[in-house]
Amino acid sequence: LSGYVLPGSYLLIENIDRLSRDHVLEAQTIFSRLILAGIIIVTLTNGEVYSRQRLNEEPYAMLMIVLEQIRANQENVRKSQLIGDAKARKKQQLIEHGVQGKPYTRMTPAWITWSDEATAYELLPDRAAIVREIFERTDAGDGADGIAKNLNRRGVDTWGRRAGKQKANHWRGSYIRKILLSTAPIGTFTPHDITYDEITRARRSTPTALVPNMFPAAVGEELYWRVKIGRAHV
Questions:
Q1: DSSP sequence for the chain
Q2: pLDDT tens-digit map of 178-193
């Protein structure tokens, strides 16, 4: 009830690679900290039991752990490479041939949806109209915070990201700025490569090559670029 695991407790895992697939130094640190804390680790696939007492009496058992952690990390690297290669091929096919009747992603901007019936991305008319209004008002000199306040004053409904997800209580200037910074209003998709820091495991998202005309445009290019250029000089 205190939130602490008592020494002598058992940790059951399918295999040692379920403990961590990090590089062997990080994985070994996790394993050692658990053992030194008095936790007994049991791997269910082979029935091995690792405890502080056993490893003191049979130090060579550590070799099995290290070898398994090396194998698990190499397997993880191989899978990541395969996934990365598959994503790269998919992106290149998208750039060269377009959507071809299948959604590249269903994680679309809030004013765009994928239609299984039309086998194409489509604008949500009411939301697309708000996107156009945001660009038109920015072009006329209104600021993001002022636009958000006006939408709130008019009672314009906010957008839920996906069905079942809670919507924001009100419009915010930060979200208006996010729309203005996006390439999606003119139909351009910006894929991102996701990586993780080896030490902190922090998620990093890096934009890659743009894919023009993947989405239907909510804003004309002349207005879009006029706003972009104008904001760049603010």
A1: --SPPPTT-EEEESSGGGT--S-HHHHHHHHHHHHHTTPEEEETTTTEEE-HHHHHH-TTHHHHHHHHHHHHHHHHHHHHHHHHHHHHHHHHHHHHH--TTS-S-S---TTEEEETTTTEEEE-HHHHHHHHHHHHHHHTT--HHHHHHHHHHHTPPP--SSTTSPPPSS--HHHHHHHHH-SGGGT-B--EEEEE-TTT--EEEEE---BTTSS--SS-HHHHHHHHHHHHT-
A2: 999 999 999 998 876 7
